[in-house]
Amino acid sequence: MPLGASLSLHELTRFYEGFGAVKGVSLSLEAGSFLTLLGPSGSGKTTTLMMIAGFAEPTSGRILVNGRDVTHVPAHQRDIGMVFQNYALFPHMTVAENVGFPLRMRKVAKSEAADRVQTFLKMVGLGEYGRRYTHQLSGGQQQRVALARALVFSPSLVLMDEPLGALDRRLRLQMQEEIKGLQSELGLTVVYVTHDQEEALTMSDNIAVMEGGLITSYASPRTTYETPGNRFVAGFVGESNFIRCRVVEAAGGGSTAHIPALDVSVEADTSSHAPGTDAVIFIRPERLRICDDSSPQVNQLAGVVTGEIYLGESSMYRVRLGPDLEVRVKRPNRGYGKPVTVGEPCMVGWRPADAIVLAA
Ligand SMILES: Nc1ncnc2c1ncn2[C@@H]1O[C@H](COP(=O)(O)OP(=O)(O)OP(=O)(O)O)[C@@H](O)[C@H]1O
Ligand SMILES: [Mg+2]
Question: Quick count: other Cβ atoms within 10 Å of Cβ 334?
Answer without folding.
Answer: 8
